[in-house]
Amino acid sequence: MAQDVKPTRKELMEIDDRIELSERGHDTLEQKRDGLIMEFMDILDQAKDVREQVDENYETAQRKLDLARAMEGDIAVRGAASALDEHPEITIQSKNIMGVVVPQIESSGVKKDLDQRGYGVMGTSARIDEAADAYEELLESIILAAEVETAMKEMLEEIETTKRRVNALEFKLLPELNEAKDYIEQKLEEQEREEIFRLKKIKAKKEEEERAAVEEEAETSGSTTEEPITADD
Amino acid sequence: MSREVAVIGSPEFTTGFRLAGVRKCENVPDDEKPTDLDDAVTRTLEDEDVGIVVLRDEDMEYLSRSVREAVETSVEPTLVTLGGGAGSGGLREQIKRAIGIDLMDE
């Protein structure tokens, strides 16, 4: 890059401005990255708890479903599952954490009463109700996990982008700008030295010329004063 | 806009969710997973009514590289895997890449 820049004072001033701006941007981005990591750590703890809850609920739900299948038969369980007419729905809204838009998921119709399930009480047993209950609970924790894990994904993406920007400034742009600045400063100094040398040379030449002129003048004036003498001879 | 939860997996896996009222279930029997799971996941990802996709963590192995990457990085709908513990669904790898440390390590 250093070879592409023009070694002029104007360019040096422009590079100085760019270095100042890049350094300020670098500091701000570093602060943003650290802030995002702190926020992420908070969400991470929450995510671990939610994940634990999901795994626990999944295990319970599976056990209860297996039990219902064993007691009532697979067909009865599938029949009850097909009879459901109330469906869980989720609404996704968004909130902002340090400039990162993360979802906020609200659910409705997940937990249902026995009479809302639609498969009737007479034809099915309590095992199926228990399995349905357990799966409803699992679904609730899945919805919470989805919210937290999506927030994590979004924040991780932002952290990665910010990190890449910080690194690009720190290891690419700023070194290049500093290199260009050094190059221009060196060139300007060299030019200055050359200029001084040139001036000294010109001065010396002028002095020599002046001296030569004085000598010549002295010589000519000397010869004119001598001439009448020689004329007298 | 209200959305729904979708479940993809073997009929044994989806039955429980249907008991909880989930309508969007893609049943892919175990022996058809290597061939059909990719299509089922792609179909679900393209469905605009779906807000959350539920998959079993072991089933992720059947997905092709591109579909797996698409589902793991998808935000809308978002993926929740079951049975894989903390950091499943590509989250652990993403954390390692972004932060530089495996924070999911217990």
How is the topology of this model organized?
The complex is a heterodimer of chains A (233) and B (106).
Chain A: H1 9-72, H2 74-82, E1 89-97, E2 100-108, H3 126-232
Antiparallel strand pairs in A: 1-2
Helix pairs in contact in A: 1-2, 1-3
Chain B: E1 2-9, H1 11-19, E2 24-27, H2 33-46, E3 50-56, H3 65-73, E4 78-82, H4 91-99
Parallel strand pairs in B: 1-2, 1-3, 3-4
Mean pLDDT of chain A: 86
Distance between the termini of chain A: 80 Å
The Rg value of chain B, from CA coordinates, equals: 14 Å
CATH architecture of chain B: 3-Layer(aba) Sandwich
Count every helix of chain A, treating DSSP H or I runs of 4 or more residues as helices.
Answer: 3
Describe the global form of chain A.
rod-shaped
What does this structure look like?
The complex is a heterodimer of chains A (233) and B (106). In chain A, 77% of the residues lie in helices and 8% in strands. With 233 residues, chain A is mainly alpha-helical. A two-stranded antiparallel sheet of chain A has the order 1-2. In chain A, helix 1 (9-72) packs across helix 2 and helix 1 (9-72) runs antiparallel to helix 3 (126-232). Chain B is of the alpha/beta class and 106 residues long. Chain B has helices at residues 11-19, 33-46, 65-73, 91-99; strands spanning 2-9, 24-27, 50-56, 78-82.
